[in-house]
Fold:
Amino acid sequence: MNPYNYFYFPGRLAWRQLVFDKTKLFAAICGVLFACVLVFMQLGFKDSLYNSAASAPLKMNGDLFLMHKQTEAMWRPTRFNRSELMRTLGHPDVDSAYPMYLSLAQFKNIETQTKRTLMVYGYDPDADLLAVEAIIEKRTELRLKDTALFDESSRPEFGPMRALLDAGKNSTEINDYKLKIIGLFRLGVSFAADGNVMTSDQNFLRIFADRRADQIDIGVIKIRPGSNVKKVQADLKTRLNEFVNIFTYDELVQYEKSYWENTAPIGFIFGFGTIMGLVVGMVIVYQILFTDITNHLNEFATLKAMGYKHGYFIRVVFASAFFLAILGFLPGFLMSLGLYRLAESQTFMPMPMTPHKVFTVFLFILSMCASAGLLAMRKLKAASPADMF
Amino acid sequence: MDKMIEVNDLSFSFGSGELKNTVLKDVDLTIHAGEIVIMTGPSGSGKTTFLTIIGALRQATEGNVCVIGQQLVNSSEHAKVTIRQQIGYIFQQHNLLKSLTAIQNVAMALEMHPGLTEAQRLQRSADMLCSVGLDDRLYYKPDQLSGGQRQRVSIARALVGKPKIVLADEPTASLDKHSGQDAVGVLKKLAKEAGTTILLVTHDYRILDIADRIVELEDGIIK
Structure:
C-alpha cells in the first residue's frame, strides 16, 4: 500500500463515520468546543492577572531598583530611609538615584462625589521614572502645586475623566486634599488598584501629610551608559544595608509576577482553575471518543474479519480524534475570542489572544483527543473478531 | 483437484478445567477447489465455531487446519491476516458499515489490494453490484435498503476481491424465503462462474439444493 493511501483510507473512513450521524457529530463538537473555551478562559484570566499585575513595573524607567526586604510587592511597600538610596551615588558608575513614593488613596469621583481607592505615584517629574510618553510631555506642568495626571485605563467608577476634563471640570480630592487633574496617561489597572494617579514628589507629600520626604518606597537608580548592570548591582550589594533588596529591571518584573503567582491567594485560585479546566476538558473529550469507538466496534470487527490489520484502526481512531479536535477547536477559538473581548470590556484588564496561547490550547485538545482515543482502542485489541458474531 | 480446505482431527473447546466445554471433536473435512459445501446441524452444534476457525478469526490449538496451503493451527497473527484477505466472509447479519453507501461498502474489500486506482476500485465494485442485481442501488446506504438487498451487497463485498474461498454464516437467517433463495442463487451463480469454493453454514433446509455436497455437524462430530 502506498504511503498516501496508508493515511488517506483510514482518514476517509473516519470522516465518513463522523459525518454520517449529524446529531452525534454536533454533540461531540459542542463537547470539544466547551472544553476548548473552558481552557481558553482560565488561561486568559490567569495571563491577564499576571500581565496587569506587572503593568507598573514593566513601565519603570531605571537600571537598578531598591526596595525594603519586607516589601512583598510594589502596591504594598515597606518604607526605608532615603539615605540608603543616596549612598549608592558614591559608586562611580551610578549616574542618578531618585526616590519614588507610592500609596493607596481615596479618590473622589468628580461627578458623583463617591470615593474609591486608587494608587498614587509620586516622583520628581524631571526624573521620568515611568516611561510613559504622556507623563513625560507634562513634565513642566506637573511641577506646579496641586496638580496630577489621571490614568485613563482606570475603572469607569472614577468618572468619565476625559469628558470631564474637556468640559473644564478638573478639580477633585485625593484623601480629602484638593487638587487639579491636568491630563491623562495610560498605565493599566491591576488586582491591587482599580486606578492610578501620577503626581510630583512635592505634591505627593502634600496629599499625604503624614509622609516624610526621607521615608521612601522605591529607589530608582540609573547607571552611566556603557557600565555593567550586574557588576554595579554586585558592588552595591556589598555596600548597602542588609534590609534592602537591589533588583535589576528583569528581576523587579519577575519579583512582582511571582508575588501574584505564588504569594497572593489569587494566583493559586487561577492556577487551580486552569488545572480543573484541563481535567474537565479531558474527561469530556475522552467520553465522546470512547462512545464513538464503542458504537463502531462491531464495524471494526467486521473489517478485521475482512483482513484489516490492527494498525488501520489505530489510524482511524487518530483521524477521528484529529477531525474532532479541529472541528471543535475552530468554533471554540472564535467563541473565546469574543469572550475575551467581553471580559476586557468588563474588567478593563488586557486579555490578549496570543499565538502562544492558541498553540498551547490546540496542542492540548489534540493530545487529549489522541490519548482518549488510544485508551479506547484497547477495547478493540482485547476483543477477538470471532466473539463479535 | 486442489484441496482448498483440509481439516484433520480438529478439536476445539471453550473454557478450561471443570468448565471445559468441548465444541468440536476430531473433525475431518476436505473441500476441493470450486466445490460448494453446505454444513448443517442444530443450534449449538459448533457450526459457527468451525467456520470462524476456517476463516482465521479464531485460534485453534489441536489438529490440522490447512486453508489455501496455510496451516492455521497455532498460527501467527500475520499468517491469519494474510488468510483473511484471501477469503470472502458473509455474515449472518449483513454487517455492512452503516455510514457508507453500497458501492463504498463493497469497495472497502478492495482497499487492501494494492495497485488499484480509486476509479478501478469503484468500477469493479459497481460491476459486482450489477451482477447481484443492485445496479440501481449503488449510492444507497444500508438503512435505505431492504434485508435482501443488504445481504446481496454483503455477497458483492465478499466476492469483489475474487477470493478463492467464500465462507457464509447463515446468510439467509434474517431473510424471507424468496429473498433468501434469491441471495444464495446469486451467490451460487457467481461462484460457479469464478470457480470459487464455498463453505456455507446453515440450518435453512430451503437452500440445501444449491450445494454440491452436504455435511452434517452434530455435537461437534461430522456425521
